Amino acid sequence: MTEDIIRVEGLSTRFFTEQGQVNAVDDLDFRIERGEVFGIVGESGSGKSVTARSLMDLIESPGRITDGEIWFNDAELADSVAEGNEEAVDGDFVDLLSITEQQRTALRGTSFSMIFQDPESSFNPSLTVGEQLAEAVEVQQRASANPRSTKAKTQTADYSFGNYLLSTMLPSQRFVTDESRERAIELLELVGIPDPVERADEYPHEYSGGMLQRAMIAQALAGEPDVLVADEPTTALDVTIQAQILDLLDELQEENGMTILLITHNLGVVARMCDRVGVMYAGEIVERGTLEDVFDDHVHPYTEGLLGSIPDLASAGGRLQPIGGNVPSLLDHEMGDRCHFADRCPKAMDQCLEHPPEYAAAGSDDHTVRCVLAERSYDEQDSLPTGYFDETERPAGDKHEDPDRSAGEPPEERTQPQTTIDEVGGESR
Ligand SMILES: Nc1ncnc2c1ncn2[C@@H]1O[C@H](COP(=O)(O)OP(=O)(O)OP(=O)(O)O)[C@@H](O)[C@H]1O
Ligand code: NI
């Protein structure tokens, strides 16, 4: 019997920038089953990280979750919240957006934990890796109000005076005990770091990228989370280490029954790791279902386009090839109420000038798609004239620089001659 651990309903996250309102995540629905790996895949700027950060309550100004519910299945939490806040509770589920910030923060590390794309950002450069892992362990111990944590705190008396002085300057050190240090070393060993006893005393800058990525996974696991949110956990790594880290996540997931939300550009990674997957485009999940639904029975031409560019896991980089055309502007006043993919879609029809609802599609009960092709087949008679969007709209890329993209990627990509999806794509698997 599977049960849902998370149900996201109508989630919208906006950024209120000087250029206008950015609809980074728009009316998202998905559910994650306990113990599964749910993947979110899509091009750069489609809203994957914002979705992950919304779940973790890590959206910062000028961003805000403007709508929706995030239901989390936790009977104990439901019990503790129910009194005085009945509308936040539905059976064993709690709407994380209807509880206090303090209640939400308490879940971080213990119920939810996140691996970020950039491991440097989750370590303090002036503390050793071991100290930081031990701190994460202690947070878990304090949070679970485990009797051990009282003992752990009293053990700080063992610190030398020098350490005591240091610990008042660096609050993270204050709680490091022998017990949590041992656990930190165990965690380093668990994620496959050689000589963990020695490595625990090293600083983050002494670690290679791959090792730091592992250490970050160890940090995320320190709190024994129910749900691990992994945002591009391997993108920055070379292929061998990429494969090792995926193996590691696989193992940990199987052993501990942990639930993983895995965010990636890479459909090869999805195929390898995930049970179900949501394909994101322009802040929406445009197709969602089991692996079979998405790989073999997909309906959305965007999914088709992504599949056409499955990178070989063994090849360098492992990023998706770009689909012809521009990544859309997510600025509210530029988005229009049409299918957001219509301007890049080889099968765009008159009907696509209306924003499609989510249709049920053939395959599993979970298979849904935001595309009229779920209801009808493509008819050339109804197709939009070539160049329709060039005449009616300026290309999105000219209007809105996506902060994620503007940094590293060469500008040529945006102005490449437009290839159709069929040219980039081809057969799925
Ligand atoms: N701090 C911010 N201020 C304004 N807009 C933002 C901010 N963060 C994200 N966005 C907007 O949200 C969109 C979605 O960003 P997000 O980081 O979720 O994309 P992504 O799918 O994770 O892309 P990538 O694969 O490159 O990581 C961006 O294109 C950007 O327009
Ligand atoms: Ni991202």
From TrEMBL:
Q: Where is the composition biased (Basic and acidic residues)?
A: 391-415
**Which reaction(s) does its UniProt entry say it catalyses?**
Ni(2+)(out) + ATP + H2O = Ni(2+)(in) + ADP + phosphate + H(+)
Broad class of the protein's primary localization: membrane
From the Swiss-Prot or TrEMBL record, state where the protein is found. Cell membrane
Name the membrane topology term.
Peripheral membrane protein
Q: What InterPro entries does the annotation carry?
A: AAA+_ATPase (IPR003593), ABC_Ni/Peptide_Import (IPR050388), ABC_transporter-like_ATP-bd (IPR003439), ABC_transporter-like_CS (IPR017871), Oligopep_ABC_C (IPR013563), P-loop_NTPase (IPR027417)
Q: Where is this region: Disordered?
A: 380-429
- EC primary class: translocase
The UniProt keyword set, sorted, is: ATP-binding, Cell membrane, Ion transport, Membrane, Nucleotide-binding, Translocase, Transport
Q: GO cellular component annotations, sorted alphabetically?
A: plasma membrane
| Superkingdom of source | Archaea
Give one Pfam family, short name only. Answer: ABC_tran
Q: Which residues form the ABC transporter domain?
A: 6-307
Q: Which CDD domains match?
A: ABC_NikE_OppD_transporters
Among SUPFAM superfamilies, the record links this protein to: P-loop containing nucleoside triphosphate hydrolases
Keyword Transmembrane part of the UniProt annotation: no
Q: Which GO terms describe its biological process?
A: peptide transport
Q: What is its EC number?
A: 7.2.2.11
Q: Which GO terms describe its molecular function?
A: ABC-type nickel transporter activity; ATP binding; ATP hydrolysis activity
- Subunit organization: The complex is composed of two ATP-binding proteins (NikD and NikE), two transmembrane proteins (NikB and NikC) and a solute-binding protein (NikA).
The protein depicted here goes by the name Nickel import system ATP-binding protein NikD
State the species of origin: Natrialba chahannaoensis JCM 10990
